Amino acid sequence: MITTSGTIKVSLPVLLFLFLAAPLWAQKTESATIKKRIDAYKEDPRGPYKDLRWFCPDGSVVPPQERCPQRGGKQRARYKDEVVTLQKTNHLFLGQILATTDYQSFWDTANNHSRLKQYQLEQYLRSIDNGWILRKAQFYRGAIQAEDESAWGIDFFNQLLSDDQVLRQHFFLIRQAAKDIPHRGDVNQAQLMRSQSQVIAEQYPPFMDLRIKIHGQPQESDIEKVLTFKRQHAAKMNTETVEQLDELVATMRDFFHPDKKQRLREYTSQLPASSPLKNSLTNFIGTSLEQESPGDRIAAYADLLFVIRNNILKENNAAARLTLLDISNYLEEQIYIDAANWQPANLKELLRNIFVLGKAGTGAGYIELWEWQQISPQLKPTESEALTIEALNRYMQLARSQVEWGTGTVKAVYQETVTLFQGFEPLAHGFIDDRIRSSALLPLGTNVSRLGDFIAEQSGLNNKVLGIANQSQIRGLNPGFAFGELVVVSGSPDEIEVSSDKIYVFERPPSDLKPVAGIATVSEGNLVSHVQLLARNLGIPNAVLSNFNLEELKSHSGEMVFYAVSRKGTVIMKPASEMNAREKALFTVKTRNEDKISVPVENIDLNQTSVLDLRDVRSANSGKVYGPKAANLGQLKSTFPENVVEGLVLPFGIFRKHMEQQMPGQNQSYWQFLNETFEQAEKMRNNGTSETEVENFQIQKLGILREAIKKMPLLPAFEEELSRRFESILGKPMGEVPVFIRSDTNMEDLKDFTGAGLNLTVFNVLEKNKIIQGIKDVWASPYTDRSFRWRQKYLLNPENVYPSLLIIPSVDVDYSGVLITKGVSSGNSGDLTIAFSRGAGGAVDGQVAESYLIMPSGEAVLIAPSREPYYNVLPLAGGLQKKTAAFDQAILNKKNMDAIRELANTVKKVLPNTPGIGSEGPYDIELGFKNDKLWLFQVRPFVENKKAASSAYLESITPKIGRNKKIKLSTKL
Question: Residue 518's CB: how many other CB atoms inside 10 A?
Fold first, then answer.
């Protein structure tokens, strides 16, 4: 109630209710509940809306029969209460009406522009699903006012485009948004055409062949095919489907509009006379559109797209910038139309086609300008009459990279939003594919595949993967062979429970992958992530393929297959029934000990139970007193004292001393429990128990041990020494310096086993109690399911694991990554491979990192740019924060490259002669940069599977290519 003083008086029961209800208000709504609501909205005449109101300039809201006190009010629908609740609890915006929406809230910077992307995704769902949640509400008169939506769109873009930095960093997203947010009354004809054809095919399956044609390679001649189909099937279709065919034909006629000049003149007339691009556009309309050859027209479109992208920031007028984006979108649409008619007759024309379409993709924002500058010199049409097979292969790798980078941009921008919607609407999965198929990337990918097929035919280098199409888009990463059930996983792989005897195809590799027989991924992450290093180390066949390949392989999921990747990257996958005798012989039963190694434990010194200073640690004691991380980092500290942080090392002896304590609930120590587990496992084997049962028994027992170690009390004397040494070494007491706590066992960085990323690292922990808990968590991590399974796969004595710990202060690096002192992709010992991500820790975790191959000459060849939308920041208060990334600038600069080369040269000279290093190289080095200063965090041997690399069978499936064989560019296709 309201008191006479004007304050609100609330009774105790009401206060109690509000207190209890508050957590419920903040609780997220489950996807299943959202799905039920959406199904209801589809049948509701008002959809997600509850009524109509006037929204007035003064902030008041009045019923529709009234009027606002001032002019300028907007009439639109109000959202249902549960729709408003979803906005607050799930940051989910359904049935968005733009009019009266706050511009900054819609741009949604704090949530990586999620609200804008949700609007785009919903427009797609409405187009393919008969209005989606507005199925019945499409006829709710007054709910949405088209003129108000368009006016809002113009104002929104005018505000957005006035900011140079926003446009530079988000060019792709803003350009895509201009296709969906109303501002000129235009319709996205390409999307509408695909949506209409999909709806017809779902209602009348005989239309499916035409639907596939219209989705993949639409041509003006398809209009007549649709009309012919209508005449032949009219008697079998209902009236609604016939009408939908008529609507499709109308859309296709609009799409293939012949008067391009008139459309472009309309756009150009909207530019101010002072526009720096107005003359270029006027000249383009007067000359380039007259080209008769579709190839020449597309080249002209691509040039203009590129000019607009390069010069749009020189245009000072926000409205003119919006017009340029509209022209850019229109030009890409014309490329999409004309590309089906550009059929290169010979190799020279095909190479020109790929260069032109790559330039168009850059102009359209799929590829960044700095990336195009890196690769365009190698893709530019040559004046030579012939090229060698080797040169053509290099060209194809670069051309294929463009497609991967371009599709990677679409995924990086939209995947998070698609994943959000997939929880309650499976149709959302098609959004990214729709964006790619309506872009210049589609004809580019088609022609890159054609080049791959041509090179394969000329060189005899051919993939053989279950008879699917576009096999030239598949390339091997790690050599090896496997036999097992094929499992194709679309969507997130993180919740998939993998099995070591199966072969998995993922959209992206999970960062904590357990052992598998073989893998293939749409996104390779990067060549030197922990997953890739483990796969390379253990000879697990690994390949990268396209999204289209993954979709085709879905029909083979569940089949038993043979899978092999050669040293040169050829890939074979065939049904088990087609395996030859030699392939079957590869999988004859082997003894458990074959091809495994023993970790030497006889030299371990457990008497060292004091906390050590990293400055006093050296490689000579690696695997004896402490693990190789600490040993090698201490060695680096002595060589590069200004580039390595201070640190504490907890040797093996401290862990072992704690393990001698009584284990709660057991009549024995932690150490006795551990050894008894492995003794029982060996007895089970001797009694004929299957290896699977033995492994499951061990994992169950180790799970009990792991949880007990996490709760283990620290010895008082050790805890006191830790506090004292922490302050003396790091300069401040525990609780004032954020640190990393890294596992450092005797079972990693061995000569033949890397163990990369198997155990826990505690990131940027500040509080003393969290550091104490972090020590116990890291001690427990070697006994996780994943860590044990990998060790079990390769080591004879995985039970003899001793963890030491490395505690180092956090460095909030601007970017971090990995250096391999050899060419991972080239195989050349003189090359360097580097992969970097923004922030801390991304490259080693398998992010799509910025990767280069650095030649002995100093030339840096871009292998892949980063496509990670988020990166880690390490605040002084501890913990991790995520920030959003833009892709318009390279991560590494020339100064960084020079520092990396200098580091590599020093490491190659110093480490092979250092006692205890145990390797002459190559080396795997983790490092980072803060304000261009290089920081070193780890060095380990770079371990590859020599057996896989030298396997006679793998050698036999790699055709001997005459790399110097020349192919005339006039060769017919």
Answer: 26
Task: Give pLDDT, residue 24.
Answer: 43
Q: What is the pLDDT of residue 601?
A: 67
Tell me the C-alpha distance between 756 and 325, whole Å. Answer: 46
Backbone angles phi, psi at 162, to 5 degrees: -80, -10
700 token code pair: 């169950």
CA 132 – CA 516 distance, rounded (Å): 40
Tokens matching residue 515: 């052992």
- What was the pLDDT predicted at 811? 94
Domains belonging to the chain, first-starting first, are 12-144 (no CATH), 190-216+221-255 (no CATH), 344-461+958-973 (no CATH), 464-585 (3.50.30.10), 612-945 (3.30.1490.20)
Nearest to 367 by CA among 302, 313, 296: 302
Look up residue 79 and give its two tokens: 């959202």
CA dist 808 and 810 (Å) reads 6
How far, in Å, are 301, 354, 500, 770, 954 from residue 946 at the CA level? 50, 37, 21, 42, 12
Q: What are 51's strand-pairing partners? A: 78
pLDDT the model gives residue 891? 96
- Closest to 406 in 3D by CA, of 454, 451, 450, 438: 438
At 591 the pLDDT is: 41
Question: Are the beta carbons of 92 and 121 closer than 8 angstroms?
Answer: no
Low-confidence ranges of the chain (pLDDT < 70): 1-26, 185-188, 215-217, 257-259, 289, 461, 494, 509-513, 523-538, 589-601, 747-758, 790-799, 842-847, 916, 918, 943-950, 959-963
Q: What is the pLDDT at residue 326?
A: 94
Is residue 193 within 8 Å of residue 180, measured between CB atoms? Answer: no
CA distance 663 to 671: 9
The number of beta carbons lying within 10 Å of the beta carbon of residue 430 is 16
Predicted local confidence at residue 473, as pLDDT? 81
Q: How far, in Å, CA of 442 to CA of 425, rounded?
A: 26
**Nearest by Cα to 623 from 840, 357, 917:** 917
Tokens of 959: 């055709």
Q: What is the pLDDT of residue 725?
A: 97
Chain center to CA of 576: 32
Cα–Cα distance, 372 to 589 (Å, whole number)? 51
Residue 485 makes CB contacts below 8 A (sequence gap 6+) with 501, 502, 503, 558, 559, 560, 561
As given in the structure block, the two tokens for residue 800 are 């003899």
Decide: helix, strand or coil at residue 105: helix
Q: So what's the pLDDT on residue 313? A: 96
Strand pairing report for 480-489 and 502-506? parallel
Task: Give the span between the Cα atoms of 67 and 584, in whole angstroms.
Answer: 81
Query: Tell me, what's the pLDDT at 785?
Result: 80
Of 778, 801, 806, 754, the closest CA to residue 634 belongs to 806
Concatenating the DSSP letter of every residue in 835-903 gives EEEEBSSTTTTT---EEEEE-TTS-EEEEE----SEEEE--TTSS-EEEE---SS-S--HHHHHHHHHH
| 913: CB partners within 8 A, 6+ apart | none
Q: Is 692 exposed, middle or buried (0-12, 13-18, 19+ CB in 10 A)?
A: exposed
Q: For residue 785, give Cα distances in angstroms to 206, 713, 747, 793, 804.
A: 50, 23, 16, 12, 20
Euclidean distance between CA atoms 590 and 798, whole angstroms: 19
Question: 324 in helix, strand or coil?
Answer: helix
Phi, psi of 651 (to 5 degrees): -70, 170
Q: At what angle do helices 785-794 and 530-538 cross, to 10 degrees?
A: 30
Give backbone dihedrals phi and psi of 652, rounded to 5 degrees, phi first: -55, -40
Residue pLDDT, tens place only, 87-107: 999 999 999 999 999 999 999
Cβ-based neighbours of 801, under 8 Å, separated by 6 or more = 745, 746, 747, 782, 791
- Residue 258 pLDDT: 56
d(CA 370, CA 352): 21
